[in-house]
Design goal:
heterodimer, A: about 375 residues, 20 strands, elongated, disordered N terminus, B: about 280 residues, mainly alpha, about 75% helix
Chain lengths: ~375, ~280
């Protein structure tokens, strides 16, 4: 893949790099409005060369729009897209040299697998087009890479969803894009295939070192697959960081809630010390944080405890086992139901009164 | 209780949740026989009374031969033209929104509904040397009315809706992402159009072409008003059949009709074969 000769026009774009060698793409102050609804607000983001970046957000957060603007399939109202060192905001999609993979594959149904993969090379001007033998060789290499070597002459309709998505990826890689953009690439696949393809995409990325941005609304997918995660909400960038950073130090309740199940508890802060029901918790906020606050905790940051030590009280509503753990829903005396995760011991009977102790969590200054 | 058969038998009747296989199948066969096959068989039977040499004699009669040539030749050209323009009309109607689009969309069907004689009179009035368009054409030295060009215009007119309506639903269904995928891969607009958008539409375009051609060959009402009907120049085969009938030459009429039937059958067969091939090649499997 990497040994093949890029065309001159492609090379002219990205050699000089005044931003710094680590930044492949810079998004600067991007705003976009569709009809009357704003989908992106003054969004800035740096994408590092060679990284696998996840754009994570709920539907309507603007993540697909951002990806399409980077690709050149949509255009921003304000702001700039910089590729390498060049302002690419006005560069048409055909000349941006991006590889785009769509959720529903968007394969050319009337072309064989090999023709699909070779499409981008065959579409080049004659002077830039590799020789026929070279194209055939490259298609063969890519088919090996996606482990579909025997499928060159099949048609997309004869393949499964997972196979089609791999073809779509090979087709995008064939043109040696400067960045690979994937829009919910596993969204249309079933759970098992999705898991296999995730691992496989990670392997391909490690092998090719291709700068890759992918959009997903599945936090597990983003956390498992990416080098860095960018969490978007309502058209704004909430946080960017490694999966560990965003999980350990979420900057806002939005990020926290979006990354997993969250329990919300009314609490009182006194100069950073947070207490619930008059009892101090291990949760510490910013110095000087005083007054009523919301404490957020993960299901595994609650433990069953004696009533005298418990922050929360309630009765067991139901419980179920999942992957070696047990999840228990507890109806709090104050009203709201919370979910507790514990090791898979004996199951608790519904109606049993229990006390819960908070052993960890987060508070955010409003 | 009979033993269940070890191997499932191949059955003519497919299992289905909707009842009435026997009734609908029988009804379809009966109606098809009565309305389509019987008259055609009678036609061929009547013509066969002349014998092969008799039919050959009619076919090689210079006036008949030139009428057949005009009918099929102009129909082919007209169907080709209708296909091209029909495709463009369908594209514009589905791809762009503009004021009055719904009205234009409805107008496309008018040639279907208009009595053909009315269309013929309107066209003749328009294209006659003293007509609105004919006057301008005459200045350029082009005679439209009372020439094969007039026949061509009438055939395009009546064939256009077929060409539009067969491709339109497929253009609606084209996935925008396919075009975007092509663009991200570096393909220019023309390349995308030729290699990605058009190939899947070919079978539908061919269907429209076949329908427009068949309609053109069979058209009578609108043509006779604008054609001038000069023997050897602008006389169409259906008109010749009517002339034979009015002369009580039923054998001759049937002979021309049978020849037309044969040529039409072969042409449509050829189009269908191309279509089947293109469906395999370009269409969805």
């Amino acid at each position: 893949m990497n040994g093949a000769t890029p065309t001159t026009s492609r090379r002219a774009h990205g050699v000089t790099n005044p931003i710094g060698s680590s930044t492949a793409i810079r998004v600067e102050g991007l705003s976009k409005t569709f009809d009357t609804a704003a989908v992106l607000h003054d969004l800035s983001l740096d994408v590092r060369a060679g990284e696998l970046l996840a754009l994570l957000g709920p539907s309507g957060s603007g993540k697909t729009t951002l990806l399409r603007i980077i690709a050149g399939l949509d255009f921003p109202d304000r702001g700039r897209i910089i590729f390498g060192g060049d302002d690419a905001t006005q560069v048409p999609v055909q000349e941006r040299a991006v590889g785009f993979v769509f959720q529903h594959y968007a394969l050319f149904k009337h072309m064989s697998v090999a023709e699909n993969i070779a499409y981008g090379l065959n579409a080049r001007k004659r002077s830039d087009r590799p020789a026929r033998a070279e194209i055939r060789r490259r298609v063969g290499d890519l088919l090996d890479l996606i482990k579909l070597s025997g499928f060159a002459d099949r048609y997309p309709s004869q393949l499964s969803g997972g196979q089609r998505q791999r073809i779509a990826l090979a087709r995008a890689l064939a043109v040696e894009p400067r960045v690979l953009l994937l829009d919910e690439p596993f969204g249309a696949l079933d759970a098992q295939v999705r898991k296999d393809l995730r691992r496989w995409l990670r392997e391909i990325h490690d092998r090719t070192g291709q700068t890759t941005i992918f959009v997903t609304h599945d936090q597990d997918e983003a956390l498992e697959l990416s080098d860095r995660v960018a969490v978007l909400d309502k058209g704004r960038l909430e946080q960017v960081g490694t999966p560990d950073e965003v999980q350990e130090n979420p900057v806002s309740a939005t990020v926290l809630k979006f990354l997993g199940d969250t329990i919300e508890v009314e609490a009182i802060a006194q100069d950073g010390q947070v207490s619930v029901d008059g009892k101090l918790t291990p949760v510490v906020g910013k110095r000087g944080l005083t007054g009523p606050v919301k404490l957020y905790a993960r299901p595994w940051q609650l433990q069953f405890a004696e009533s005298s030590e418990a922050h929360l009280h309630g009765t067991v509503r139901s419980s179920y086992r999942t992957q070696g753990r047990q999840r228990i829903e507890v109806d709090r005396t104050e009203g709201k139901t919370v979910v507790v995760e514990a090791s898979d011991t004996a199951r608790l009977a519904a109606g049993l009164p229990v006390g819960l102790r908070i052993v960890g969590g987060y508070v955010f200054a409003e | 209780m009979a033993e269940p058969p070890l191997r499932p038998r191949r059955r003519f009747r497919q299992p289905s949740v909707i009842p009435g296989f026997g009734l609908t199948f029988g009804y379809a066969l009966t109606v098809l026989s009565l309305i389509v096959l019987l008259p055609l068989a009678a036609l061929v039977l009547r013509a066969s009374k002349l014998g092969f040499s008799g039919i050959w004699e009619v076919a090689t009669d210079p006036r008949v031969a030139s009428a057949l040539k005009v009918s099929f030749g102009v129909s082919l050209l007209a169907a080709l033209t209708a296909s091209v323009f029909g495709f463009i009309v369908a594209w514009v109607l589905t791809r762009y929104t503009f004021p009055g689009r719904k009205i234009v969309d409805a107008v496309v069907d008018l040639p279907f509904a208009l009595p053909t004689a009315v269309a013929g009179i309107a066209l003749a009035a328009l294209y006659a040397p003293n007509g609105l368009v004919g006057e301008q054409l005459a200045k350029l030295g082009i005679e439209a009315a009372y020439t094969p060009l007039g026949i061509f215009i009438a055939m395009v007119f009546i064939g256009l809706p077929f060409a539009v309506r067969t491709v339109q639903p497929l253009i609606v269904e084209i996935d925008k992402e396919i075009e975007e995928a092509s663009a991200t891969l570096g393909a220019g607009r023309l390349h995308t159009l030729v290699h990605v958008v058009l190939p899947p539409l070919i079978p539908a375009v061919l269907t429209g072409f076949a329908l427009a051609f068949a309609r053109g060959v069979g058209e009578y009402g609108s043509i006779i008003f604008i054609a001038g009907n000069l023997p050897y120049v602008s006389e169409i085969a259906p008109l010749l059949i009517v002339i034979k009938l009015s002369e009580y030459d039923y054998g001759g009429a049937c002979a021309i009709a049978t020849i037309m039937l044969g040529i039409s059958f072969l042409t449509l067969l050829a189009i269908n074969l191309i279509q089947a091939w293109s469906r395999r090649r370009f269409g969805y499997v």
